Fold each of these.
Amino acid sequence: MIKLIKKYFFKQAFLIYSYMLNLIFFVLDLMPHFIRNLFFKLFFKKLGKNVMIDYKTFFRYMSGIKIGNNVNINRGCEFFTSAHLETVIDIKDNVTFSPNVKLYSAGHDYKYLNLPDTAGDIIIKEYVWIGGNSVVLQGVTIGEYSIVSANSVVTKDIPPYSIVAGIPATIIKKREIYE
């Protein structure tokens, strides 16, 4: 009986937290960039310089998110870390997210009926571009100078200088850079 009561109150507390977080992001979308950036500076684990976070973005459990310098996060992006398990979404310098990119560093183990939580860090190295509507799943590292094509689902590590596409994302060619 006590276990059921605890479970009920935990669920209610989570629903209140979710409601409040959505309310905060609704209000943030009405604020100018400098106020939004102050909020993000307070709640992210790290927020670098010259970071552009567009409106209509969402971050769950911001204390697990690190963002480097010169990062662009476009409209509609959503980043989710874990509430119970220590995970980090670590975005290095000069990374660009196209609209509606989703990062999930938490999930569930489908092998069990009660679907216990699983989690793994997501690390996105320098000079990566992630195309629109792409999804990056837990435990993935995307190597420096890589490109993730639009509408891709990244389920495993991507080596540096790779261009990937598809569901699941696979390497389609090496990236050549000209300066």
Amino acid sequence: MIYSTVSFLVAPGKNLEANEYFHTVVRQVKKITGSEVRILNQLGGQMGHFVLSSTYDSVNEWDQARTKLQNDMPFQKLIAQGGNDGLFILGSVKASIWQQVQ
């Protein structure tokens, strides 16, 4: 099982706006790739820490979804808009891919 995560630190005062933005992103990912994405918010620790998380059966399945997103210009504009709107702390967005070990 492959786990993909993208972690964000939301700019102060932007939590509500970021939450709405994440829901829009999740809807678009589902529409483009069919992938289910979860929005996670850290309960303890740093405020405004969100993670988008999805799972895939294989690296190939993850790569197919990633390729579809990279080639979808309206989606790429949506992603850029979050940065342009100052929703996130500069340099805080981090993407990871994980493999479950048995």
